[in-house]
């Protein structure tokens, strides 16, 4: 996530999060620190995992005061260990205190997603299957959560409803059949768009293949049904598997030779990575000269 992307797409979201936490003032901080006081605080990993969101973490503080600075010993996507000091934040102590929780909320959430994604992606190593996320993200946090998936070694499915054609069960219900839905999508969508369709039965698989779907999503099928579906498709479309995919069952799917496995669990079920800001202390100007 580069600086331009952050400023264009994320600043307003970060500011909204800060306003949620500071509706008028930080009463606790203002009651004990009346004026500018230069200080530093350490960023510590309290668990092993994959770090993600350092730029967002820093942006929380610089939006409060642009003179705040952070230094990190790791980069997004790198592994951190329990007890490791992974950075410092330097600036007005009032800013460090007021921004602490919001900054950590972003970094812990994004790092948790990156860590869980990395665990899932490692189970696909040596196969052709790519791990995808879904749109099952926290409202107004999709930009952060999908970035975290990439940092963890996963791939992004479509970002939003404007990003691609995916005909799900209710689209098919509205159109009347798989073939009707695909026909309508081909007539409406630009020819450069691939058409993906979600199927739940072998009959729908056959219909999707015959109607020229580019990608067929096998949704919530058992292993034997997916194996039969792969025989029907026979390389005439790319194949995605979806539906309750977790660390516990993803390995069993790889033997099918599917192109993609998508998992909403990457974003909706990943636990946070425990991180903390510790050892806050004043810094005299002479220490920084």
Question: Which terms would index this structure?
Answer:
289 residues, 4-stranded antiparallel sheet, 12 helices, 19% strand, elongated
Major beta sheet, specifics?
A: 6 strands, parallel
| Gyration radius, in Å | 23 Å
The mean pLDDT is 94
Distance between the termini: 32 Å
Low-confidence segments: none
Helices and strands: which structural class? alpha/beta
Order of helices and strands: HHEEHEEEHEHEHHEHEHEHEHEH
With strands numbered from the N-terminus, the spatial order across the biggest sheet is: 6-11-10-9-8-7
Strand content: 15-25%
Number of strands: 12
Helix content: 40-55%
Helix segment tally: 12
Coarse shape? elongated
Written overview of the protein:
- The chain is elongated and about 75 Å long.
- The protein is an alpha/beta fold.
- It has helices at residues 3-21, 27-32, 54-64, 93-122, 142-151, 169-175, 178-188, 202-210, 223-233, 250-253, 265-268, 285-288; strands spanning 38-45, 49-50, 69-72, 79-80, 85-92, 130-132, 165-167, 195-199, 215-219, 238-242, 260-262, 275-282.
- It has a 6-stranded parallel β-sheet with strand order 6-11-10-9-8-7. The protein has a 4-stranded antiparallel β-sheet with strand order 3-5-1-12, covered by helices on one side. Strands 2-4 form a two-stranded antiparallel ribbon.
- Helix 3 (54-64) runs antiparallel to helix 4.
């Amino acid at each position: 996530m580069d600086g331009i992307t952050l400023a264009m797409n994320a600043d307003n979201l970060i500011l909204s999060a800060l306003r949620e936490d500071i509706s008028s003032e930080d009463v606790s901080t203002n009651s004990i620190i009346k004026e500018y006081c230069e200080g530093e605080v350490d960023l510590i990993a309290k668990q092993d995992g994959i770090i993600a969101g350092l730029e967002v973490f820093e942006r929380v503080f610089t939006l409060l005061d642009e003179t705040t600075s952070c230094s990190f010993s790791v980069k997004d996507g790198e592994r951190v260990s329990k007890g490791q000091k992974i950075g410092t934040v330097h600036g007005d102590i009032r800013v460090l205190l007021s921004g602490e929780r919001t900054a950590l909320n972003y970094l812990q959430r994004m790092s948790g997603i990156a860590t869980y994604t990395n665990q899932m992606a490692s189970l696909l190593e040596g196969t052709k299957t790519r791990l995808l996320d879904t749109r099952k993200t926290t409202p107004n946090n999709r930009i952060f959560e999908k970035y975290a998936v990439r940092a963890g070694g996963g791939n992004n499915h479509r970002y939003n409803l404007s990003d691609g054609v995916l005909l799900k069960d209710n689209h098919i219900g509205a159109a009347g059949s798989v073939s009707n839905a695909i026909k309508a999508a081909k007539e409406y969508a630009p020819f450069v768009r691939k058409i993906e369709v979600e199927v739940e039965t072998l009959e729908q698989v056959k219909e999707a293949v015959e109607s020229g779907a580019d990608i067929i999503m096998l949704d919530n099928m058992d292993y034997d049904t997916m194996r039969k579906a792969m025989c029907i498709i026979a390389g005439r479309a790319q194949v995605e598997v979806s539906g309750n995919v977790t660390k516990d069952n993803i390995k069993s799917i790889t033997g099918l030779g599917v192109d993609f496995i998508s998992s909403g669990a990457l974003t909706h079920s990943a636990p946070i990575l425990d991180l903390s800001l510790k050892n806050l202390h004043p810094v005299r100007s002479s220490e920084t000269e």
